[in-house]
Amino acid sequence: MRIPIEQFRLDNGLLVTLSRDTTAPIVAVNLWYHVGSANERPGRTGFAHLFEHMLFQGSEHVEANEHFELIQRAGGTLNGSTWLERTNYFETVPSNQLALALWLEADRMGALLPAMTQKKLDTQRDVVMNERRWSVDNQPYGTWWEKLPEIAFPEWHPFHHSLIGSMEHLTAASLDDVEQFFRTYYTPDNAVLSIAGDFEISDARQLVEQYFGPIPRGTGKPPLENMDLPAKLGATIRRVVEDEVNLSRLYMAFRSPVFGSDEYYAASVCGAVLGMRRGSRLYRSLVREKQIAADASAFTFDLSKGADLLIVDVTARPGISPEQLEEEVEREIDRIVDEEVTADEIERAVALIETDMATALQTASERADRLSMYATLLGDAGLINIQSDRYRSVTAEHVSQFAADRLGDDNRAKLLYVPRSGDGAGDTEMLVGVATS
Amino acid sequence: MTAAVRPQPGLPREYHFPRFERRMLENGMSVIVAPVRKLPVVSVVAVVDVTAVDDPTGFEGIAELTAQALREGTHKRDGVRLALDLEKRGTSVEAGADWDSTLVSMTVLKHQLESAFGIFCEVLTSPAFREEDIERLKAERIAERMQLLAEPRGLADEEFSRFIYAEGSRYAEPMSGSARSVAAITRHEVVEFYESRYAPEAVTLIIAGDVSAAEGQRLAESMLAGWSGERAPVTRRADKVERTARSVEIISRPDAAQSEIRIGHVGVPRSHPDYFDIVVMNAVLGGLFSSRINLNLREQHGYTYGASSYFDWRRQAGPMVISTAVQSEVTGEAISESLNEIERMRSDEISEDELTLATSYLEGVFPIRYETTASIASALANLVIFELPEDYYDTYRGRISSVTTAGVLKAAKSHVRSEELQVLTVGNPEIIEAPVRALGIGEVIVRDPVES
């Protein structure tokens, strides 16, 4: 199964990828800016995401919130999201509204700053603080998003700090920060524009040239700090968190090969062998057989620089102590380190991954997003068409080798959530062995 | 630098919801096949006319438990074998019961369809319901109940249903049952429930995706025509409305970082003739990002990450709800602003501009909703569940565009009854109780969550 792809670059550096499919009169427009929380300066955690909110507050020719209104009035859907390495913005519209979506994206890439005001920043800061309360502070286990990277990456590393940001840092964000961030990162040469769905290639090219062509190239963004890390943590790190929860939960992160590398596919399949669906090892052993867990899963974070994380996430059954949960999960991890993975397990994992990829590509929006992802992180949108082959070439030996190399007790970051005991103690941390990074 | 002139849309290209063919097997099972040629993907859904509303009193949750237990093994394969045999084919079978149906579903790549479908049919027609699996599922459900008590959003939704429906209404109880009602269920009840309710005449099988109508019908015929059985008659419990005078409940969570707010009352059944007027009215009130409630609470005041309203459409009258989560300190203001928006909706006609925003949005996103085989199958399932006409999806956009500002006002006046609105918030009473009382909107009760 291959989807057609055309790629070209404008003079200002904007990389454009097009994939045509005329099954339905729908077209998706998707922009990835190669900037995320990793690019934030010290004292400004959460800024990349707050900035994403500001992109819906209007631009030179667009009023605040009008972007939303115009797209919805056109019969389209839209949103944006921020991750460690990127920020994306996307619309899916009826195909006769392609020009509108492109014009709106170009107006905010080319001329955001005239629309920025202190009042808008203050309101969006309040909105984002409420987003933090909603998704992190008022959710059981909600802080895992920031606590797990905190122990899996060293303090100096750009993946270490919180993506949603601290209340203190959000409060400190200023209009000057908005201007500086925009000029540095929201430039055509730091972005990928993908269009997928029902359009004529020549029309799309012409519209892209017309709207994005006049936007000047950036003056160069500062290089990221060296992101390289030792392949392993060098120790087992363990943090215990008391939270408003009734059941204990263990998150375990292992540093693993970066997204898109040859070894990444073995890590990804290993995650599926361990924790994808009900036939996976953790589910069978902990949920079904021993019945000590209510749920179990494993997945990769898909980070492309420094180190990726393979994450295991298991929630205890009522009556199971945190220690017992931890011991049983570690027993399963030790087992995959010590014993060979079978060809049947690989077949199951790869078959599930392949179906997921195919079903995802049914929507124009997902096609466009993946084109942008491969182009932004790995420099080639065409990689979307070889993913099945990459997964199919993973063998049991690869996965066993990966597990032996990376899942040992010299590469485990454990975050254990336990029901609050009432003595008001903060997190407790323990280092087992010596950390070298 | 960028063009000041906004582009105008070109001519829209036509779109039709996928054609489908409906037939009946000799054993009374209906089969709908919708060929969709795009990617080699096929979705299969069995819509079973077994609902949580049918749960016998005292055994609430049995419809859901029975649906889940289907996936735990057949007479031929135990649960592990079943999961592995499906997953090796790149798929798994999902099953669950809600207020209006039980759905058993699967999405699979075309080259695995035939063999995976065989296993799918085994799940539907030959479940083993092993004792140990039933007991494990019950324990998992009890764990879920414990999780819910720690999760403010789910807790608020559930407590709100308990609040607005009268005791004895099935809708007042959790859809998947309480810890007590689930504990009362044994293998015996599950087997009996399955045998008396699951039968060919209670099932519509839907196949959507990369198959021809003939292929789909042949597949269904070859694997399911031999299934027999009749279902016992079912008496459905009716919902009963609870409070008609405005009142307020505060569910106490002293450590809450935010207040979850729910405002609403019992709505109307899906079959109501005002359905399209209500859908458009709701889009303007709180159904879109650019709706009145979201723009007010989020974009004007910064009280929240998001605020919305919805009618939960069921065969019987489901809830009408305004739902948001706000900073604790502004709980009173957020409730008051929401009530103001409801009043505004009921007192004046909306502008032509607001009307067209809602109608053109709903018309435009229609094809975007049906890009996947799973979403097409689910749309067809709704035809069956709500007994909608065959041409429902062909006429949908026309019916949306014929809604008027007068129709919207009438829908707001008849279906949002401001004097009956109930308000519930899950939050820290120390911060929110006084300001909520000060609103003077009705009796205020502060209580702990119901542990059930």
Task: Tell me about this structure.
Chain A has 437 residues and is α+β, with helices and mostly antiparallel strands. Chain A folds into two domains: 6-212, Metalloenzyme, LuxS/M16 peptidase-like (Cytochrome Bc1 Complex, Chain A, domain 1, 2-Layer Sandwich); 235-432, Cytochrome Bc1 Complex, Chain A, domain 1, CATH 3.30.830.10. Chain A is 41% helix and 20% strand. The model of chain B has no long low-confidence stretch (mean pLDDT 95). Chain B is globular and about 65 Å long. The longest helix of chain B has 19 residues, at 131-149. In chain B, helix 9 packs across helix 12 (352-364), helix 10 packs antiparallel against helix 11 and helix 11 (331-347) packs across helix 16. In chain B, the strands form two sheets. Chain B has a six-stranded mixed sheet, with helices on both faces. A six-stranded mixed sheet of chain B has the order 9-10-8-11-7-12, with helices on both faces. Helix content of chain B is 42%, strand content 17%. Chain B has 452 residues and is of the alpha+beta class. The chains are: A alpha+beta (437), B alpha+beta (452). The interface between A and B is large, with 85 and 81 residues.
